[in-house]
Amino acid sequence: MSTITKAVDVDVPLPVAYNQWTQFEDFPHFMEGVEQVQQLGPTRTHWRTKIAGATREFDAEITEQHPDERIAWHSVEGPRQAGVVTFHRIDPSHTRVTLQMDIEPEGAVEKIGDALNVVDRRIQGDMNRFKEFIESREIPTGGWRGDVDRPTP
User: Fold this and answer.
1) Residue 152: inside a domain, yes or no?
2) Can you tell me the distance from the alpha carbon of 110 to that of 33, in angstroms, rounded to the nearest whole number?
3) N- to C-terminal Cα separation, the chain
4) Most buried residue among 64, 83, 130, 141 by CB atoms closer than 10 A?
5) 50: domain range?
6) pTM listed for this prediction
């Protein structure tokens, strides 16, 4: 499993950055290879991606969410992955968004791409496009501010 961590500073207040990130249906606007994200419930999403010509679908579950702080998730079927995005106030009008992803490449093509840092570059590109997306709007397209506590073992 590969762990990738990327960050970007956005020129919007922390609540604006956080609220936009909770709008999963907008991810195709700035995430390469993401064709569609459907919100199935407060903590479950369905993803359709297309990478290297291969279409994949999977569900993900939010395992922890605290407004203006963090959102953590993991896939529940399909490609194995998990991640956490955190939001850090730089000053009243600037926010650092940090994304950490744990990805298990499947098949030869994904393993080669992982070895060549293709996923690493793609995630940095996604973060840069998120910056452009939110800064061009200055207000989020919506926001969900519910709390999801980490499950106790």
Assistant:
1) no
2) 13
3) 22
4) 130
5) 2-137
6) 0.88
